[in-house]
Write a structure and sequence with these properties.
About 45% of the residues lie in helices and about 15% in strands. It has about 80 residues and is an alpha+beta fold. It has one domain (about 10-80). A two-stranded antiparallel ribbon has the order 1-2. The chain binds zinc ion.
Length: about 80
């Protein structure tokens, strides 16, 4: 099962490559809307595409050795 390298919580894998994940709710800050929506989008990408953190990091040209928050920060910068 793909493992998040940040503080995200992988949930039960689906058959095959599909799995569900959700953010660590401790990361949600009611005063930081764009950070929060970027965290949610990060998880939506996993759930919709079935891609692991490594796969998303590679597709975005990000380091695969870093915690997966680099995905969230890229989404925050580029999408919001
Ligand atoms: Zn992730």
């Amino acid at each position: 099962m793909p493992q998040h390298k940040g503080r995200f919580v992988p949930i039960v894998p689906h058959p095959g490559q599909w799995y569900r994940s959700m953010p660590d709710l401790g990361l949600i800050d009611p005063n930081n809307y764009y950070q929060d929506i970027s965290i949610v989008l990060h998880e939506v990408l996993h759930n919709v595409t079935g891609m692991t953190d490594d796969m998303i990091q590679s597709a975005l040209g990000l380091s695969t050795n870093a915690v997966s928050d680099n995905i969230t920060q890229r989404l925050l910068k580029d999408c919001f």
